[in-house]
Amino acid sequence: MGQYHKFMNFDKKEILEPPSFRKLMEWSYQENEYMLHLENLLKTSWKGDRVLVIGDYVNEYYDGEYSSEVLNKIREENKEYNIENIYHYPYKEIRCSSFYANRLPSRYIYNTETKEYIDIKKQPLQWIGYDENLNLIVGRKIHPLSLVLSCSNGAGGGDYYSKNDYMIGCWINNSNKIILSKNILDGDYKELTLIFNEFAPKENNTELLIDFISKKFKLEDLKKVEKLKFASSFFLTEEEKNNIIEQSLQKIKNPEKIIENDLEIEK
Fold first, then answer.
1. Are 169 and 240 within one domain?
2. CA distance 231 to 137
3. Which of 54, 74, 169, 197 has its Cα between 20 and 30 A from that of 144?
């Protein structure tokens, strides 16, 4: 069976509920409105608070697991509820707002205690699509924030079981030290090159985009390809965009060089 997950703030005793789909990997994506709302909270009213991802199987599975120390501390602090399962604490519920949809995620996630940061641009594209009306390439990547803050991954369907799953929950001990930023911050930070990948056949996004475009478009579409736009959430520079278009055009003109892959193509 599937495990449901949600963000819980253990300092303010608040919960951010997912709007619909509740399994971890149903909403752990960078442009998901739930994650965008969470980002806004971490920049404002939840900044500096202990915020963790808790699943409803947390009580049955996680005693003695990687997060048991954190979970036991939370139980000690919440004895007044007389509820063993943390997921069911009667905290104040904050409903996810669609107001945050169509906004850009923060590119950098900093941990000021471990002195690490994650660049979400480097997460591989799990899905790529094409908006014909806008001549726009769109896509979806995993958001690492929900995974590094997860206290109960691995107990049910919809959890993350793929590359680097042993790193799930690696920031749960210092979740109150997280800062989100659009820009590189000053300080002695080291990049945590942590890649999460469920479906991408390659982990180089430039190669993934070139493969997609060169399979999607034909010779009669060259003018469209020349004017292709890319979703802002890819965080591509103009040089990177031009390089992708140029190499895609070359592949379209020389289709025998296209290497097949399993990436789904959608209109």
1. no
2. 6
3. 74
Residue 143 has pLDDT above 50, yes or no: yes
User: Tens of pLDDT along 176-221?
Assistant: 999 999 999 999 999 999 999 999 999 999 999 999 999 999 999 9
Is the confidence at residue 135, as pLDDT, over 90? yes
Long-range pairs, 45-48, Cβ under 8 A, ≥24: 45/12, 46/9, 46/12, 46/14, 48/176
pLDDT in tens, 66-76: 898 999 999 99
91: containing domain: 5-117+145-191
Which residue has tokens 């139980």? 75
Residue 37: inside a domain, yes or no?
A: yes
The alpha helices in 44-93, defined as continuous H runs, are 58-61, 68-77
What is the Cα–Cα distance from 161 to 199, expressed in whole angstroms?
A: 11
Residue 86 binned pLDDT confidence (cut-offs 50, 70, 90): very high
User: Does one domain contain both 85 and 211?
Assistant: no
Question: How many domains are contained in the chain?
Answer: 2
CA distance 56 to 6: 9
